Automatic annotation (TrEMBL):
GO terms for biological process: meiotic chromosome condensation; mitotic chromosome condensation. It comes from Sesamum radiatum. InterPro entries: CND1/NCAPD3 (IPR026971). Transmembrane segments: none annotated. Residues 113-125 have a biased composition (Basic and acidic residues). One of its GO terms (molecular function) is histone binding. This is Uncharacterized protein. One of its GO terms (cellular component) is condensin complex. Residues 106-125 are annotated as: Disordered.
Amino acid sequence: MAPPFVFPQTLTSLEEDNDSDYTRLTVQNPFPISSLRPPELEEFVKGVSFDLSDKELFCVEEQEVFDRVYSLVKGFASLSPGCKFNLVESLRSNLSVLLPNVDSLSRSGGSLSRDDGHDESDERGGEQLLADRVASHRNAFKIYTFFPCAYCGH
């Protein structure tokens, strides 16, 4: 499971080293999108959009995907209108699919405490798996919520 995403004061504070004992998701390898020519930048955006649509919803927690999305949001003002649309639409689409999934996962927690003869240690393992999935979905929800808010200032 990825480290928790903590809403930063500013977008660029995600690049700051994590000095505290508390582990959080930060940018490790920001991509210098300003060095890309327009066709390369368009391919980069398409690649990020593809990853966001092709992988699981919480792929945005993966360090490489997180760093690439961050880089695009940071350089949002320099993106072409088409690239902006693709990025925003990818984030919006995943957020809209993620919302009911978080709700559904949260509600399914009660169904784990049933008396059907399963070993109690299996139930605890299932409960932990569910808790991890809910935490991961909530983490992704925070990321998908933060990035659109960050580029609204551009």
